[in-house]
Amino acid sequence: MTRISADWLTSPATSRVFSMLNDAGHAAFAVGGCVRNTLLGAPVSDVDIATSARPDRVLDIAAAAAVRAIPTGIDHGTVTVVVNGQPFEITTFRKDIATDGRRAAVVFADTMEADARRRDFTMNALYADPAGTVHDPVGGLPDLRNRRVRFIDDPGERIREDYLRTLRFFRFHAWYGDPAQGVDPEALAAIAANLDGLERLSRERVGAEMKKLLAAADPAPAVAAMQQTGALARFLPGADTRALAPLIHLEDGAPPDALRRLAALGGEDVADLLRLSRAEARRLRLLHELVAAAVTPEEIAYRHGAVTAIDVALLRAALLETPLPADLAARADAAAAQTFPLRAADLAGRFQGPALGRALRQCEQRWIDSGFRLTRDELLRPAAQ
């Protein structure tokens, strides 16, 4: 018997949620990521509860317990309750009766076992009761111990229920899989056989999953597997994985940056295909432009900041197979802190209109090219001739 022990499980808020459901005669289990991550020793951010109580009954139980309840997804069995400021999603046991590759029509079920069968991966179908005893209806514990991401039952059926599970599979492999064991071959075969359904997915959902995938410590093996199945080309036409692994190696333990890694993949119309925000799209476009530009890291740092200069240097080294500049971080920080010593007023007596702007830009470029060493007087002498 496997048991877990965690602060989130024994907290007063979680205990109250369990108690109000159990005292009303209903089964209640923590399920999914909170159980999985506790077993892995990873952080837990959300606590989801699966219960035999129907959603209307959950609302009544919460009202009787003077607990705030919000019918956030009541048609699909989900009620959010808030205890001590902490939200809990309480979802009735359910099973799918029809799917279209994006949404499922569900009916409520009476058992944990039926509820488990509708989930995606075995490691996500782990349940824990209030005492911490782990219940494993579909064999997720051995898979979790071996860091093996595996679909529940038939992979093709799980994918056709919701085609986003293709992306989720690669994301979960990047976060929780063991690269040394490789990727589950049955899953890869099913993904390759069901590529046509990917066009049904919304770009927002695809973009959110891609960013989560690329935020893993090392997503390169998972993304390479995605390319092999043909899925990457469906999501990002023209993308290439060759620079991703070198980039991650060059990052040398720096915090993962999904946008920088997305820039390394390249591809066509990425911002639109992934529905990136305006800020994300601007940053991605800037990185692509600067990687190809004949501009030094110091100039990039001065004009766009040290972070952008480091991003571009990493991307250039990975894409062009060149070494990183020595003392990159120190040089970028120093350049970003520089202040141009001239103002337009310094040249106003000699230049006017557009000519003034051109002269000022020329002086600034000379100053940058000098390594920021030219003084105000040195810059003014050539400009006066």
Q: Mind explaining what this structure looks like?
A:
With 385 residues, the protein is α+β, with helices and mostly antiparallel strands. Among the domains are: 1-145, 2-Layer Sandwich (Beta Polymerase, domain 2); 340-384. Helix content is 51%, strand content 11%. The protein has helices at 7-10, 12-23, 33-40, 55-64, 112-117, 140-145, 155-161, 164-176, 185-193, 203-214, 220-229, 231-235, 244-251, 258-265, 270-273, 278-292, 297-304, 306-320, 328-336, 344-347, 354-369, 376-384, and strands at 28-31, 48-51, 68-73, 78-83, 86-92, 94-99, 104-108, 127-128, 134-135. Strands 3-4-5-2-1-8-9 form a 7-stranded mixed β-sheet. A two-stranded antiparallel sheet has the order 6-7. The mean pLDDT is 94.
